[in-house]
Amino acid sequence: MQSGKILRNHYKIIDTLGSGGFGDTYLAQDLDLPGKPKCVVKHLSPKSSDPGTLTIAQRLFETEAETLYKLGKDSDQIPKLFAHFQERTEFYLVQEYIEGHDISKELTPGKKLSESYTITLLKGILSAL
Description:
The protein is an alpha+beta fold. The protein has helices spanning 51-73, 115-128; strands spanning 6-7, 11-19, 23-30, 38-44, 81-87, 90-96.
């Protein structure tokens, strides 16, 4: 998805954050809110346009949205779900943007972490789980 694209007349794509097996993640701006705060848009696109596949994808998407909403609502460590919607055969989740870096930046293959750092890192991860 190109920078500058606007979804639902509401979310303006700024940059790509990442890609995975199920879709892409973008940094966006919420054009409807004061200050146009940043948010994250996850774009999920089924590999097949077969009606049966789309029905299953839609059910899984709704379940994921419900789960993300519950988790984010009850935690200060999990991004809040702001919206979810479908446009034709494309699915979108809009979540809170949290400034920081990906946890993969903390883990370098071959680099040993100190015991105290490892404990602190794991405590942070486990408290979110």
